[in-house]
Specification:
Number of strands: 6
CATH class: Alpha Beta
Distance between the termini: 43 Å
Bound molecules: methionine sulfoxide
Strand content: 15-25%
Order of helices and strands: HHEHEEHEEEH
Strand order of the largest sheet: 3-2-1-6-5-4
Largest sheet: 6 strands, antiparallel
CATH architecture: 2-Layer Sandwich
Number of helices: 5
Structural class: alpha+beta
Number of domains: 1
């Protein structure tokens, strides 16, 4: 399969447009997940996990909770350090996995997933969640995709109103 080119600048502008003036994070992130699902080629899951304690003071600060997404039913809670998402959250670092079956501890939600990218979302210098995208093709996400999605994540975190 040839290289996929995505206009991440346009995507970030569309994300800003969708999130501007949205009073609630659920509404904003639901539409951003839909936008990413309809824009990005060759993906089978896209969505957000958010740090539990940020959503509800009774939930742990070191666990991710499933947020708005497009795709198959997914696991609802991922401890920091577990799976690709928990690793990205714990290390505060994007994880680009060419082959999920080679990633020790990968959490399989959709058996079709072959590669994955997870990008942290931050507020006040701390991880508040992650953007997670799965593809049925190995090595779907390039360095360029990572940079583009980091820009998109930056745009999301800037416009997110978590309260
Ligand atoms: N694969 C992820 C779990 C979430 S699903 O992909 C939606 C992980 O290993 O953290």
């Amino acid at each position: 399969m040839g290289t996929i080119h995505t206009d991440y600048q346009l995507l970030a502008a569309q994300v800003k447009e969708l999130m501007d003036d949205q009073p609630h994070w659920v509404t904003a992130l639901a539409n951003v997940a839909a936008l990413l699902a309809q824009t990005l080629e060759d993906i089978n899951w896209v969505g957000f996990y958010l740090v539990g304690s940020i959503l509800d003071g009774k939930l742990p600060p070191d666990e991710l909770v499933l947020g708005p997404f497009v795709g198959k039913v997914a696991c609802t809670r991922i401890p920091f350090g577990k799976g690709v998402c928990g690793t990205a959250a714990e290390l505060d670092q994007s994880q680009r996995v060419e082959d999920v079956h080679a990633f020790v501890g990968h959490i399989a939600c959709d058996a079709d997933s072959a590669s994955e990218i997870v990008v942290p979302l931050r507020a006040n210098g701390k991880v508040i969640g992650v953007l997670d995208i799965d593809s049925p093709s190995k090595s779907r996400f390039s360095e360029v995709d990572q940079q583009g999605l980091e820009q998109v994540a930056l745009c999301v975190q800037t416009h997110l109103r978590l309260q």
